[in-house]
Design goal:
- The protein has two domains: 3-21 and 241-427, Alpha-beta prism (UDP-n-acetylglucosamine1-carboxyvinyl-transferase, Chain), CATH 3.65.10.10; 24-222, Enolpyruvate transferase domain (UDP-n-acetylglucosamine1-carboxyvinyl-transferase, Chain).
- It has twelve helices and 23 strands.
- Helix 1 runs parallel beside helix 6 (200-211) and helix 3 (97-108) crosses helix 5.
- By secondary structure, the protein is an alpha/beta fold.
- The chain has helices spanning 24-36, 50-61, 97-108, 128-136, 173-180, 200-211, 243-256, 274-282, 318-324, 347-357, 387-396, 418-427; strands at 3-5, 15-18, 38-44, 65-69, 74-80, 88-92, 112-117, 140-143, 152-156, 163-167, 189-194, 217-220, 223-226, 236-238, 259-262, 286-289, 294-297, 308-310, 332-335, 362-365, 368-371, 379-381, 403-406.
Length: 430
């Protein structure tokens, strides 16, 4: 399917129940932690998408034994206590930012020589701050194209240094990558953080590390400590439903004034995007947690209130808010998202280009956007091979005629059957 034509269903009613896949962020963290652990881990509810498949393929190529059941959405990982059965390998992380950062850090702290490549998209995304820190710890990096970017050969070593400095201005994944593999540091590690970034994903990392047996201490706001001798222990682990994926359907409820429950999404989630649901409440939605999952009911007629919000802590949903912003009763101001220019695409540019094509006025600010209300006109969305652009602007089209999504298959990165799930939801509306 080269183009997906969104159906305008505004005016229909519905009380929908939606199932979304497992969290990409949690799946990929669990895969590497399980590989580093001693013994067997059973990961239940795992995501199978381009990103997670790339991550899985990487650890398999590094000699980690796994047993995969895609039908049951489960993966058994036999960890080797941080040791690899190979000392040389060639891997490709694809477009997965987690694989790119997490596995690179792991290899830098592992004896061996490894060639690491990526997709053309990932070659444009920042890696240098992490690679610089890893070189300071003793790894050697040989770049094969542009310095600071894929592809490169990394010669790793188990670090003896017990201090590190990491700049996370461009991505909190640099810190998560270092933390997950910190058990490889012979003398433990004291990590000082430079710069600022939304820290919700760091909370996911440290919580999961604790669940597998490694406590991360935080003596000050910008210092993280993993003690000498820290070890992961294999275990059975249940992966949460993907809150990021759920948010598209909650946004659907908001602009259509309908009721949507996404199964197995709860406020106890460790995922930062849960804040988007709280934001929808401020915009006029009614939010309630049920035994099945969080329910969001949009205001009558989808009449949303304008908001002024710093989204640095849940920036993956900046596109989602931008996509429904034209239906608010005033200007929607989004700040704290300058770093999303360096993700799968320049997402601020993607927002501005697509909304402008719809006839929606936008102002670009130093670290975000202002989006003004209006009636979107027919247009074909440029997705830039970015899954979140495709999913977010599909929601816009549920309340406007003539919205088409180019390259809808790009959602396979995190949500393979997104458009099938959306179609099934639409069919249940009356």
């Amino acid at each position: 399917m080269e183009v997906y034509s969104v159906k305008n269903v505004y005016g229909k009613s519905g009380e929908l129940k939606i199932q979304v896949p497992g969290s990409k962020s949690i799946t990929n963290r669990a895969l590497l932690i399980a590989a580093l652990a001693e013994g067997e881990s059973l990961l239940e509810g795992a995501l199978f998408s381009d990103d997670s498949e790339n991550f899985l393929n990487c650890i398999q190529r590094l000699g980690i034994k796994t047993q995969v059941n895609r039908e049951k959405r489960s993966i058994i990982v036999w960890g080797n206590g941080g040791k690899l059965p190979v000392s040389e390998a060639k891997i490709n992380v694809g477009s997965a930012g987690t694989a790119a950062r997490f596995i690179t850090a792991f290899l830098a702290m592992t004896d061996g020589c490894f060639y690491v490549d990526s997709s053309e998209q990932m070659k444009k995304r920042p890696m240098k701050p992490l690679l610089d820190s890893l070189e300071e710890m003793g790894a050697k990096v040989k770049y094969h194209e542009k310095e600071g970017y894929f592809p490169f050969t990394i010669t790793g070593t188990e670090p003896e240094k017990d201090e590190a400095l990491i700049d996370i201005d461009k991505s909190s994944q640099f810190l998560s990558a270092f933390l997950i593999s910190a058990c490889k540091c012979k003398n433990g590690i004291n990590i000082k953080v430079k710069g600022s970034h939304g820290m919700n994903y760091i909370y996911i990392t440290t919580k999961m590390m604790g669940e597998f047996g490694i406590e991360v201490k935080k003596p000050t706001d910008n210092v993280f400590v993993v003690e000498k001798g820290s070890k992961y222990i294999g275990r059975n682990y249940k992966i949460e439903a993907d809150v990021s994926a759920a948010c598209y359907f909650y946004a659907m409820a908001a602009i259509l004034g309908i009721s949507v429950t996404v199964e197995n999404v709860f406020f106890s989630s460790v995922q930062g995007d849960i804040k988007f649901i709280e934001l929808l409440e401020k915009m006029g939605c009614k939010v309630m947690e049920t035994t099945e999952g969080i329910n969001v009911k949009g205001p009558e007629g989808g009449k949303l209130k304008a908001v002024d919000v710093d989204m640095s802590a849940f920036s993956d949903q900046a596109l989602t808010l931008a996509a429904i912003a034209p239906y608010a009763d005033g200007a929607v101001k989004i700040s704290g998202i300058d770093h999303i220019r360096g993700q799968e695409c320049d997402r601020i540019n993607a927002i501005r280009v697509n909304l402008s094509a719809m006839g929606i006025k936008t102002d670009e600010t130093e670290n975000g956007l202002v989006i003004y209300p209006g009636t979107p006109k027919p247009t074909r969305i440029k997705t830039y091979d970015d899954h979140r652009v495709a999913m977010a602007f599909a929601i816009t089209g549920l309340r406007s005629d003539g919205i088409e999504i180019s390259d809808p298959g790009c959602t396979r990165k995190t949500f393979v059957d997104f458009f099938n799930v959306l179609d099934n939801a639409i069919e249940k509306m009356v």
